[in-house]
# Entry
Amino acid sequence: MGMKVRVVVGVVGVGMLVAGCGGGGDAEPAGSVAASGSPPGIAPGEPDPHGVRYRVEGTLPKGPAKAGVYGVDGSVSREEAERLARALGVPGGVRADGGEWRGAGLVVARQAPGAWSYLAKGDKCARGKGCPAPGEAEAREAARPVFAALGLAGAPSRGDEVRGASRVVEVDPEVGGLPTDGWSTRLHIAAGGEVVGGTGRLDVPRTADEERYPVRSAAEALAALNEGAGEDGTVVPVTRARFGLAARTREGHPVLVPAWLFSVPSQSATLAQLAIDERHLGSGGGPRHPGGATSAGPGAATRSVPPVSYAAAGRELSLRFSGGVCARYRAHAEEKGAQVRVHLTEEKEPGKVCVMIAKDLTRSVTLDRPLGDRTVVTTTGETVPAA
# Structure
């Protein structure tokens, strides 16, 4: 969840609609929403020093009394990895390499859920020079066979994000009849319908743990989302609240956790707030996965950004990614055994007017020792390819 933030031009109008969710039962009053323009004395597009408060007009849906955490165990077989390789058009199949399956530009973790990353070899449009991104309909059609091979044929896709010379088509699976945030499969489609990159997980958890935990109400989750914002802060409308699942980690393993998913159209974002006490995730609950509230600042919207590739020189590790012109980006690294786990975060002020332009960016971190033969992975286990 990741939280899906798109940088948009202008301010979206207020149209309030709250969706019901599987829990049923009585709804909770949520209060009304004022217009979300800049308060007096604050220039248009500037952040409100009092922070941002998210408000829902009408009623919030009621979720279940208890819910469980979804995880996946085991390993990824060669057959599963080669099915993905064929769908991506990777020649020569895959080979075992330590804890990974590797093909031409494809890396798949052998430990479930099989985090994978793909970067096409010799992509002439990698730098975006003279290669326009395809249209949304063309990109979705090109992505369809890969999603089908991953068992995601019925999931709704989005294709409104453009990164350099490619268009990103993204799918979030439905699990246990619930929407998910942060367990996305993302495919980069270049001109002519060529799949030139992607990230995701081969396995989607389908069964919750036997343990069930008390679920916080949507109102309690919304209150937690607004922690730190003053009563005089800018009001930002939430048009939809759904009970679903958000990606987090538990004891170092990716899981899907009960959460309330709030749609914020003025930020083109989904904000995921946990619906169970975070202590049930043990020590692996943080840092939070995309969509969770963070300490970036009152009202700041944050999300994780997937690195495209890395380069290492001595102790310096440089991460390349695609980002917006108005956001701030930070890079962190955690060194554990044979892995260096990296985390890129984007921070932007909600409501700030900004043009929708993507740029190739780099952020660097200094390691305790040279990278050597260690593997660079994201916080959820996806391998980051070398540049």
